[in-house]
């Protein structure tokens, strides 16, 4: 039997300065669904563990995909999408693709050469629609800061400010203001007032009529006035065929009919769409189920509710589905309830999963004693995750004979690990191996055991556990990580032939894994340092520079290429053929100013309807080429640097694989911004620091959010603790320092650069050590340095046992190099 858990207990450390959660190298989480092995639960029914896929919010926000395209150099266009060579047919439908400003970019093979950005001129004239939208945008431009404050604070003063602005700006300006008011009122559950505001927006202007009508209908339903919503939505697609809400409107209309006690009309709207793409969305299925239920077709309703409960367990509708099944007196089966609990566990909802396991054990009279015993053990593993399980608790667990017995052994092994009982942990893992060689819990125990020995620098035993995991469970979600760790530990123990074999095997067996750049680099190092095959080493380094050009490892590889110099060419090693070519999307850097969806998105920003900006842009047939830049530019236009940066990160453009010269500079300047540059550079220069290193650190720490405050109360751009700030200010001659001053970018940069300089000095100028101490604290870093068994600093960085710290150091060094590549010529 036995269900699947995702990951192993996370050991969390609080750093001395910013309170980041530092996960040990050994405790990375598994977020991939794995089906349960074994059977025997619930009278022989399968007890599977299901990890719910992410559910899109609203049909109009479903992401589309693009087909593979040949590599294209970055281009620049001058005007509207209307004249683009890409037609609307390039997307399956505009509405299906509305989830992102850009879609996942599938493009053809990189050539490895740097191509110049070519300019593509696409002209189109403004239309009546674009002129009307642009006029509304101009009319509401001054509203934006007030509307954004309203949606953030929803204070009485902010409401009054927007109402006053609306009164003084009739027409489209007032319409945008009323939309902002309605949106905020909906957030405050003041539905009747929201409906009135949306109605006022419709009466004041027409640029965002579809938003006023649709959102007004939602407010009417929530306010208990479904008869107001029905006529507004009955012909919504006919009135607003290009609206973002066309796919959503039938469901909302059906909800209005149900609220108006007209289930037959709701079914008439929904049934024809049941087998379409829209019919697959959980909100559609939930509404259709309610319509069947209200129409007394309980069998069809139950079928839909069951599907939601089991297949969309993390959705808001799942709990309602359970309640509606109970209301119809149609019980869920034992196996279904167990499957749902497993899904909650896999989603790391351990508290909810424990409640469900215990309720199932207590409530279901049909369970055998073996089933009850198993549920008790499953609840115990939730307690382990929640750090509330003791050895005494485990000793009290029942003795079973199925896979839950393997789970109990795993629990005992984890508790032995937590108290440092290596021999006890080893003995339990051996017992698991002998009795349950195919159990998921052996897989977990081997990974956990390897992690334990890794942290204790017992590399031989760690490698043995990782190797055993790969041998027993070659398809495990842990297999790529375990295989890489075994390879790296062989390198660290100077077993170079085995390390070389494993690294080439890593490249070939797990070609899409995140470990590949590291495997390429360190295999290249062995060719260079141990085998003195400089030509083959160059092949590996060049492969990194081609496929992973903007990564930490590519930066290291370029240093090695420069050091080796020119060598005779040799045929590439067979493993290199497995490296996946990374492709370039076509991106343009001048936005199509006459595109109606772009102008509408800007207008939405004025009204603070921020969640609709990206899906509105994505309705444009050509948004794949410019949508990411457009969304980020909307935020950047109001100096919202952090939002712009985050929007560009969300774009799914493969920036780590794209040459700087192959992407228009506007994208890079948003992805690697330089606000406060003059102050930052002056403070960096005053402390003898590379200003690009300071920018790189801030990008990683706060994403340039001057108001950022962490859970550990670290403040501002460089995330300084108040105590650190006070100490630095005191040394600077400031007697009455207020920690709120750290929110001032000027103060934060001055003190933060001083702190960074001191940290680097503390480690004799070694930046990598200083950065690691910023994230993990001084004591661990001193301990890692003291072993003194590293060939060089890159090997030291690779050996950092805390995953977050290692990634933190590598990311900042990569950021620094990106800043140099983007801005270094200026």
Task: Write up what this structure looks like.
- There is one protein chain.
- By secondary structure, the protein is mainly alpha-helical.
- The protein contains 39 helices and 4 strands.
- A two-stranded antiparallel ribbon has the order 1-2. A two-stranded parallel sheet has the order 3-4.
- Helix 36 (767-776) crosses helix 39.
- It starts with 11 loop residues before the first strand and ends with a helix.
Considering the chains and any ligands shown, give keywords for the structure.
single chain; 826 residues; mainly alpha; two-stranded antiparallel ribbon; two-stranded parallel ribbon; 39 helices; 1% strand; disordered N terminus
């Amino acid at each position: 039997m036995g269900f699947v858990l995702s990951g192993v207990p996370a050991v969390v450390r609080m750093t001395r300065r910013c309170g980041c959660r530092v996960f040990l190298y050994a405790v990375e989480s598994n977020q991939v669904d794995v089906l349960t092995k074994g059977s025997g639960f619930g009278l022989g029914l399968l007890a599977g563990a299901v990890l719910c896929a992410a559910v899109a919010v609203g049909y109009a926000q479903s992401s589309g995909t693009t087909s593979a395209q040949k590599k294209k150099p970055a281009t620049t266009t001058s005007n509207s999408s209307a004249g683009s060579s890409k037609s609307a047919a390039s997307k399956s439908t505009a509405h299906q693709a509305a989830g992102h400003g850009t879609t996942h970019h599938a493009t053809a093979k990189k050539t490895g050469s740097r191509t110049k950005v070519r300019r593509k001129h696409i002209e189109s004239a403004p239309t009546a629609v674009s002129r009307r939208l642009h006029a509304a945008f101009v009319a509401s431009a001054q509203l934006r800061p007030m509307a954004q404050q309203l949606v953030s604070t929803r204070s009485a003063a902010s409401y009054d400010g927007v109402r006053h602005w609306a009164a003084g700006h009739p027409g489209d300006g007032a319409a945008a203001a009323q939309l902002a008011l309605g949106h905020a009122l909906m957030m405050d559950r003041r539905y009747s007032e929201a409906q009135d505001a949306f109605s006022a927006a419709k009466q004041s202007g027409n640029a965002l009529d579809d938003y006023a009508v649709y959102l007004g209908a939602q407010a009417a339903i929530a306010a208990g006035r479904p008869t107001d919503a029905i006529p507004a939505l009955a012909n919504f697609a006919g009135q607003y065929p290009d609206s973002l809400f066309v796919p959503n409107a039938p469901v909302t209309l059906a909800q209005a009919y149900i609220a108006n006690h007209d289930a037959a009309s709701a079914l008439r709207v929904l049934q024809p769409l049941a087998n379409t793409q829209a019919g697959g969305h959980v909100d559609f299925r939930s509404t259709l189920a309610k319509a069947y239920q209200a129409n007394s077709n309980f069998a069809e309703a139950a079928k839909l509710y069951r599907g939601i409960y089991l297949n969309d367990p993390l959705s808001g509708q799942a709990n309602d589905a359970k309640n509606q099944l109970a209301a119809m007196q149609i019980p869920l089966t034992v196996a279904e309830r167990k499957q749902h609990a497993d899904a909650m566990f896999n989603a790391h909802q351990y508290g909810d999963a424990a409640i469900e396991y215990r309720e199932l054990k207590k409530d279901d009279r049909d369970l055998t004693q073996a089933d009850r015993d198993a549920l008790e053990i499953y609840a115990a593993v939730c307690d382990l995750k929640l750090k509330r399980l003791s050895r005494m608790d485990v000793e009290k667990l029942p003795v079973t004979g199925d896979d839950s017995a393997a789970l109990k052994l795993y629990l005992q092994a984890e508790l032995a690990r937590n108290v440092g009982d290596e021999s006890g942990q080893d003995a339990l893992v051996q017992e698991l191996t002998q009795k349950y060689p195919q159990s998921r819990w052996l897989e977990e125990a081997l990974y956990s055991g390897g992690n334990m020995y890794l942290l204790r620098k017992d590399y031989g035993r760690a490698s043995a556990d990782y190797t055993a995991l790969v041998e027993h469970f070659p398809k495990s979600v842990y297999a790529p990580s375990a295989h890489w760790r075994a390879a790296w530990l062989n390198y660290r123990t100077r077993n170079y032939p085995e390390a070389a074999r494993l690294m080439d095997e890593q490249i070939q067996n797990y070609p899409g894994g995140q470990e590949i750049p590291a495997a390429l680099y360190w295999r290249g190092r062995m060719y260079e340092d141990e085998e003195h095959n400089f030509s083959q080493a160059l092949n590996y380094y060049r492969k990194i520079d081609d496929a992973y050009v903007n990564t930490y490892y590519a930066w290291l590889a370029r240093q090695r290429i420069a050091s080796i110099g020119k060598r005779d060419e040799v045929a590439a090693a067979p493993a290199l053929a497995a490296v996946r070519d990374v492709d370039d999307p076509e991106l343009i850097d001048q936005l199509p100013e006459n595109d109606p969806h772009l102008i509408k998105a800007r207008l939405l920003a004025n009204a603070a309807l921020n969640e609709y900006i990206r899906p509105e842009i994505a309705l444009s047939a050509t948004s794949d080429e410019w949508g990411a830049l457009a969304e980020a530019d909307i935020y950047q236009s109001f100096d919202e640097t952090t939002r712009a940066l985050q929007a560009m990160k969300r774009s799914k453009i493969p920036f780590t694989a794209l040459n700087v010269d192959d992407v228009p500079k506007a994208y890079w300047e948003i992805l690697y911004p330089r606000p406060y540059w003059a102050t930052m550079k002056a403070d960096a220069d005053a402390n003898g620091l590379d200003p690009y290193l300071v920018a790189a650190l801030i990008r990683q720490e706060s994403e340039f959010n001057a108001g950022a405050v962490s859970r550990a109360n670290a403040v501002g751009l460089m995330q300084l603790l108040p105590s650190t700030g006070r100490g630095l200010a005191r040394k600077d001659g400031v007697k009455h320092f207020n920690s709120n001053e750290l929110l001032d970018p000027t103060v934060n940069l001055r003190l933060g650069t001083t702190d960074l300089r001191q940290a680097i000095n503390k480690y004799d100028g070694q930046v990598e050590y200083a950065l690691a101490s910023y994230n993990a604290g001084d004591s661990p870093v001193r301990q890692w340095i003291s072993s003194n068994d590293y060939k060089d600093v890159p090997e030291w960085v690779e050996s950092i046992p805390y995953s977050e710290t290692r990634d933190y150091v590598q990311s900042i060094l990569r950021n620094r190099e990106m800043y140099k590549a983007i801005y270094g010529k200026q």
